[in-house]
Design a protein that fits this description.
heterodimer, A: about 350 residues, mainly alpha, two-stranded antiparallel sheet, B: about 290 residues, ABC transporter involved in vitamin B12 uptake, BtuC
Chain lengths: ~350, ~290
């Protein structure tokens, strides 16, 4: 399928979802749906670097918070009591995305030349550095947090949350399209070679550093764009929960549970896990919810390393096996045991 | 800001004492991440587990926290061996340690933390012992015993570890497994077994480090997160797997954090180690005493 028809089909499905939520007539569904869609964007964005390229980013919360705090910065700079909310949210998203993209590029440039583990640790570190900066930056509220008063209504949509929901829906469709486009482009194939064997890719002439930087920048930008409307959603933005690792664990768990090799995986993971979490937060507690995410993450990486998509493939291929007889089962074949010698991969 | 010599010397001394404690916290990671190349993000969670073990032993049975940590040491050793076995079978054997192994430890971190929250709640817990409270005064310099005791015991622990690593057969095999597994196999040593022992030792140190932590400060389950970046920063700065390097880096970070907290305010202190980590990774990834 070409990209534009895919985008349109996604839009139609999104439109149906929006209409369905409208007929339910309760704004709660928009509030819950917004969070799920936000996770679709975050996990798709994470997967562009993590799933396609194999570099683990623990800084999802940081990129997300960068987007959110650039909104707060603009809001405090421009919006006054006389002209509240003059800057439209799509513009805020572009700014938030740009800030996150630049930070992602800088981070990547510092650490992506090293082994993957160092990049992962550096992203963890970045979250804390940024949090410390924001906590000490009084202009955006510091540790007290920042208020953004959400308007009650907006012209054609009725209540404001419907507008936010629609924006997040569009962003989710856009990021799925981008992820799918990357997957099938030279960039995607290049990233896949890096994931499989970076040394071989480098030797074969793949510009590994450049591809990794592009992936990090796109991924960071999408996370920042997902964060930009967040202050309007939450109303009161605090540094600690915004930079929390909860976003990171979700953004990692969802693609790994869904399956990391295609754009479908993060979508499935985010829809399933995101909805499940909304139900658990309402019915049990948010601590149990995190426990569940952690437990599912560990269970899936151990028992079903290729996620739900991998399980589905395996099931379908087994049916093929019965029919054709012996056939190659590429997906689940254990990788040959590599004699890893850490000395040869020592950071240079 | 009024500069005073007292303040400076006290900040440096308490930084050194805290640094000794950081060394104990990091020593386990130097074994697992530095030597074995296992990116154990869950290490701080095991440390918090150690804190709670010391807390339970102290509040229920009145045992000294450090003694309690030594009593539960074998349990932590067994836990470490079990975790390594799962990690080996599920990831190392399949060659998937880079992405899914990381996610595994990240998941473990959350599971441990949330389980502790659900069982103990989010209240801060602390322990009582004779050396918590009193302070020795040497001239203008204060030596709080609650910092001095963990620092000394931790240096003793690291000395023991260093002796084990350099003087015993298993220790030398652990150093060797990092360099050449095939050669180790030719010496009729099973590298998986050696790695299991080494990882188990690294988790066992978390039991002691956890006891030190709860002596120094009250603990609640998510305190461990502050230590993730810090211990990795120390480990990388110390040159990945060198215990003397770890001690030097830990004291360096401890002193700089303490100076920052004294002269710029405690809210800036967390950024120090992380800034150092980024700087080290960008400028000299092999660390201070890198190979």
């Amino acid at each position: 399928m070409r990209t534009i028809p895919f985008f349109l089909i996604c839009l139609v499905i999104g439109g149906i979802a929006f209409a369905a939520a409208l007929t339910l007539g309760n704004d709660y569904y928009f509030f819950a749906g917004y969070v799920v869609l936000q996770y679709v964007v975050l996990s798709t964005a994470w997967n562009i670097l993590g799933g396609y390229c194999g570099y683990v980013n623990f800084g999802t919360g940081a990129f997300f918070a960068l987007g959110a705090y650039s909104t707060v910065t603009i809001y405090t700079l421009i919006d006054t009591n006389a002209f509240p909310h003059v800057v439209p949210i799509p513009v805020l998203m572009l700014v938030g995305g740009a800030v996150s993209a630049v930070v992602g590029l800088g981070m990547g440039y510092l650490t992506l030349r090293l082994r993957g583990a160092f990049f992962a640790i550096a992203t963890l570190a970045m979250a804390v550095v940024l949090e410390t900066l924001v906590v000490n930056w009084d202009f955006v509220g510091g540790s007290r947090g920042a208020f953004i008063i959400r308007p009650e209504t907006i012209a054609p949509f009725g209540s404001y949350i419907r507008y936010l929901f629609l924006i997040m829906l569009l962003l989710a469709v856009a990021s799925l399209t981008i992820a799918r486009l990357i997957e099938r482009s030279r960039l995607g194939y290049g990233l896949a070679t890096i994931r499989d064997d970076e040394f071989a890719a480098e030797a074969a002439g793949v510009p590994t550093l450049r591809l990794k930087l592009i992936a990090t920048t796109i991924s960071g930008a999408l996370m920042g764009m997902a964060g930009a409307p967040f202050p309007y959603y939450i109303g009161y933005l605090q540094p600690q929960p915004t930079f929390a690792l909860d976003y990171a664990v979700n953004a990692i768990a969802m693609p790994l549970i869904g399956g990391t090799s295609t754009w479908v995986g993060p979508l499935i993971g985010a829809l399933l896990l995101g909805s499940l979490q909304q139900i658990i937060i309402v019915t049990i507690s948010s601590a149990v919810n995190l426990l569940l995410v952690g437990a599912l993450l560990v269970a899936f990486v151990i028992l079903a390393p290729n996620g739900i998509v991998g399980l589905a493939h395996k099931y379908l291929q087994h049916k093929d096996d019965d029919f054709v007889g012996r056939r190659r089962t590429g997906l689940e074949a254990p990788a040959p045991q590599v004699e890893s010698s850490p000395t040869s991969e020592a950071p240079s | 800001m009024i500069f005073s010599f007292d303040l400076l010397s006290n900040a440096i001394i308490s930084g050194i004492l805290i640094g000794g404690f950081y060394a104990a916290v990091t020593s386990g990671l130097s074994l697992s991440f530095g030597i074995l190349d296992i990116v154990n993000l869950a290490h701080p969670a095991f440390i918090i587990l150690g804190s709670y073990a010391a807390y339970v032993a102290n509040s229920k049975f009145g045992i000294d926290p450090i003694v309690a940590a030594i009593i539960v040491l074998p349990a932590f050793y067994a836990l470490g061996a079990a975790v390594y076995q799962i990690y080996y079978v599920a990831f190392e054997k399949r060659g998937q340690e880079s992405l899914r192994g990381l996610a595994f430890f990240f998941g473990l971190l959350f599971i441990t933390e949330v389980s502790l929250v659900l069982y103990f709640g989010v209240d801060y817990r602390d322990v009582s012992a004779a050396y918590i409270g009193p302070t020795w005064h040497l001239g203008d310099v204060d030596l709080p015993l609650r910092l001095l005791t963990p620092c000394l015991v931790s240096l003793a622990l690291i000395a023991c570890l260093q002796l084990v690593l350099t003087r015993t057969f298993v220790g030398r095999a652990i150093m060797a497994v990092a360099q050449d597994q095939l050669a180790l196999r030719l010496m009729a040593v099973n590298p998986v077994r050696i790695k299991r022992i080494a990882f188990a030792i690294s988790i066992a140190t978390a039991s002691l480090a956890g006891a030190f932590l709860i002596i120094i400060q009250p603990v609640e389950p998510s305190v461990g997160r502050d230590y993730i970046g810090r211990i990795f920063a120390i480990c990388v700065l110390g040159g990945m797997g060198s215990l003397p390097g770890t001690v030097i880096a830990a004291i360096l970070i401890g002193v700089i954090e303490s100076l920052t907290a004294t002269f710029y305010g405690p809210s800036w202190a967390p950024a120090v180690s992380f800034g150092f980590l980024l700087l080290t990774l960008a400028v000299r990834p092999a660390g201070l005493l890198g190979r």
